[in-house]
Amino acid sequence: MMNGYNMDCFKHTMKCIGAIGLMGALALLSACQEKENSEVMNDNVFLISEYSTPHGTFPFDKLKLSDYLPAVKEGIRLHDAEIDAIVKNPEAPTFENTIVALERSGSLLSRVQYIFYNLLEAETCAEMDSLSEEISPLETEHSNNVSLNADLFKRVKAVYEQKDALELTPEQNMLLVKTYESFEKNGANLSDEGKEKFRELSKRLSLLTLKYGQNVLNATNAYKLNVKDSSDLAGLPSAVVEAAAKKAKDSQMEGWVFDLTYPSYAPFMKYAQKRELREQLYMAYNTKAASGEFDNRQVVKDIVNTRLELSKLMGSNDYAERVLRYRMAENKENVYHLLNELLEAYKPTAMKEMEEVQAYAKAHGADFDIMPWDWSFYSEKLRDEKYSINDELLRPYFELENVKRGVFGLATKLYGLTFQKNDSIPVYHEEVEAFDVFDKDGSFLAVLYTDFHPRDGKRGGAWMTEFLCQHVDEKGVNVRPHISIVMNFTRPTDSLPSLLTFDELTTFIHEFGHSIHGMVANSHYESLAGTNVYRDFVELPSQMLENWAFEKEYLDGFAVHYKTGEPIPAELIEKIRRAANFNIGYATLRQLSFGLLDMGWHTITEPFEGDVKAFESKAWSAAQTLPTVEEALMSTQFNHIFSGGYSAGYYSYKWAEVLDADAFFVFEKNGIFDQETATRFRKEVLERGGSEHPMVLYKRFRGEEPSILPLLRRHGIRK
Asked: What percent of the chain has pLDDT over 90?
């Protein structure tokens, strides 16, 4: 369709046909279109060379949906020109004129991608989803044009083959190796026919993963449990009921509304006494995107089969074999060894926990076998009975504003970082806050955006990302990063502030751990900075930071009652510590089941055309404890592995948990706020990003390779 300017130009041109002829009129129309395109580009926020915002932050307040596509196309055009200049450089290939030049190319395209894909996750809409389906193939084609450029690869390979004689620093050597491997794993060594096949498959996979994520979000948003009878709210805490009333009001519905976002779903499953309603909500949650308009079952098949076909094209037997070459685990045998070792260690404990919850339920009137929709309900009651602790007892001490102060304060105590809210920094949604982050010497370190509450345009879960990654530019300036953490925490209501559960507190700390990794980054090259590390190493800083949530010395600093200001009682902290391992066997097997399911899908060696549910049931059966529900399906909503970055990598959470327990042991031994230990962890792990192999960095901090024993001891599995 034409906009108003174009239509006026068209009408004027039609009037001119009689005077200047058809060809002249068409030329005039073309000139009008060029003028309009020029005006559109001049008004495009991405094409501003420098932003006048604090720290050059992105001016979200000037962003228009119409900016994205033209900016992507212009970014691709400019990147093509940069690649062409590298290829046609008459000088012999060197590390600087080829590897570094390639690393620094494509800055405009990267800027657009950072903004577009981050907002696609945090603030999407139908128009954004539609744009993604148009932009993604363009970017995939461009990426393939780069990685399959034979002349470019020839230069990269020439530098790579002389790497031992170049006297590179460890970071330079890592950049060279990763650059070469990137070409290698993206088809550069394929035949011409193979390269064309690679293009076709990668473009198909890009669209499939987009479709998968859109279906999950749409299916999540489509469901609402509308409760109209107050008796159906029995057992629910008043804060949960009030939040549900607000949801109903916002949705212009009567009564109370519960949906599939975590702050709504989780407390309902823990506290709602009406079993049939728990079952109803459970089934809605666990059949997301498993049927109907947003059915992902065929999408799952298409994704795994496309990944398999790509892997075989690249000479691997399966997808896991292809990707694990570039991770700490190295191969699927090592992954399965870890999963099975943990399964053997934790399963006896998990089965005892299952029996204990079942016995408790029967003793309290349950004349049925515990089903998945009963587990949280009876587990929470048993936990409260054993330890006199529950979410509602703790919530008053974890008011969001106080928690922010406490979480930020953790970075202050460990690394000397300070945070100052900056309302002058534009944000992408009114609920988002932006902070200037300063280092211990007072110098500017980073920008941090925080986005805490669920909305229709935001996918579920919690994550850290960045709008600008740290690097040293061609002028030698250390460009500081712009980091974002996005969560889905309990909203405030008309009478209550946002009061977090303990799980939400640890989630905040977890994502903040990722953000510290990004904020203190100190690499020369963007592709090696911050969280740009091996997938099975990236969770170490985040999971290790969670340990502080159980420490009295830390909680005493911010956990106060939101009404009275009284600090959290020492006995309550002790109960948190004592209850930390409650149902740890069940929780571990749940994570292991996800790892097994991921590996199951990504170790197939023949195209899959069977039943998704049957495959799922078999793949994770060894880690299941509760009865199987025929209709429930995880594979159709498993964003981590089908539209995120954890395909053949979900084991990373347990891999990193072994590392985090081993690393935190050093803090426990030396003091949880010991400055020497914290400084060593920052300098040897956090600041270094992916500049060296992660085991080299870890051993430099720890002094030895990690052991599984600290994790088993922490969980009470071993003495």
From this structure: 91
Indicate the pairing of strand 433-438 with strand 225-227. Answer: unpaired
Are the CB atoms for 103 and 526 separated by under 8 Å? yes
Query: Residue 110: is it exposed, middle or buried by C-beta count within 10 angstroms (0-12/13-18/19+)?
Result: middle
Give the β-pairing of 444-451 and 482-486.
parallel
Q: Determine the Cα–Cα distance for residues 328 and 539; give it in Å rounded to an integer.
A: 12
Closest CA to 199 of 188, 208, 209: 188
Structure tokens at 536: 């099975």
Say how many CA atoms lie within 13 Å of 259 toward its Cβ: 23
Sheet holding 482-486, edge to edge: 418-421, 433-438, 444-451, 482-486, 463-468
CA atoms within 13 A on the CB side of 312: 12
Q: By three-state DSSP, how is residue 223 classified?
A: coil
Q: Which of 503, 500, 490, 562 has its CA nearest to residue 247?
A: 490
Q: What is the DSSP letter of 54?
A: G
8 has a pLDDT exceeding 50: no
Supply 371's token pair: 């089903």
Q: Minimal CA–CA distance to 556: which of 572, 568, 574? A: 568
**What is the pTM assigned to this prediction?**
0.88
Buried/exposed 392-421: b ≥16 CB within 10 Å, e otherwise: bebbbbbbbebbbebbbbbbebbbbbbbee
Q: 671, 623 in Cβ contact below 8 A?
A: no
Known catalytic residues are: 511
What is the Cα 207 distance to its own chain's centre? 19
Could you give the CA distance from residue 321 to residue 308 in angstroms, rounded to a whole number? 10
- DSSP bridge partners of 560: 567
Q: Please, are residues 600 and 627 in contact by the beta-carbon 8 Å criterion?
A: no
Average pLDDT over residues 24-37: 46
- Where b means 16+ CB within 10 Å and e means fewer, 272-284 reads bebeebbeebbeb
Tokens of 477: 């300036």
The model's pLDDT over 138-151, given as tens digits with 9 standing for 90+, comes to 999 999 999 999 99
- What does the pLDDT average to over 334-341? 96
Across the range 100-123, mean pLDDT stands at 97
Report the pLDDT value the prediction gives residue 49, as an integer from 0 to 100: 85
pLDDT, one tens digit per residue, over 103-112 is 999 999 999 9
Structure-token match 């089908």, residue found: 642
Contacts of 627 (CB under 8 A, 6+ apart): 369, 370, 371, 372
Question: What is the identity of the amino acid at 4?
Answer: G
Beta bridge partners of 464: 485
Within 83-232, strands assigned E span 225-227
For range 427-447, the mean pLDDT: 98
| 3-state secondary structure at position 459 | coil
Q: Which residue from 473, 470, 517, 508 is spatially nearest to 489, judged by alpha carbons?
A: 508
- CA 97, 100, 103, 104 torsion: positive or negative? negative
The one-letter code for the residue type at 521 is A
Beta strands 256-258 and 463-468 are unpaired
664/394 Cα distance (integer angstroms): 25
Structure tokens at 297: 């079952």
- Dump the DSSP string for 267-292: HHHHH---HHHHHHHHHHHHTTTSSG
